[in-house]
Write a structure and sequence with these properties.
114 residues; alpha+beta; seven-stranded antiparallel β-sheet; 2 helices; 7 strands; 17% helix; binds zinc ion
Amino acid sequence: MTALGVLVCPVCDRQMAAALVEEVEIDFCDPCGIWLDAGELGMLVSDAVVNPRASRGDTVSPGRFCPRCDRPLRLSTSRGTPVDVCGEGHGVWFDRGELERVFAALKVEKGGAA
Ligand SMILES: [Zn+2]
Ligand SMILES: [Zn+2]
């Protein structure tokens, strides 16, 4: 869904590019990482993988803001990997390499099945 226009990278404030992964459109910033809207995340991985809502105990991720609502992202953890989530549930930001780690952890849990 690009109807809302181009999203801005939470890390460097540049416009993100869109890419198709498993037929889901995601937004990414080449040097920084990947933003997944909550709905996109659910299409890529089971919602058990990442809780797109921050919990109250999460700390604010300094200097990072949700590309959807401009509120500060919060630090959360997915499968032992730190991720930044929007407190309003808009989505999740993965630093470069973090998403791969989450997927890798997931494959281990699935016993290597594709
Ligand atoms: Zn960036
Ligand atoms: Zn948001």
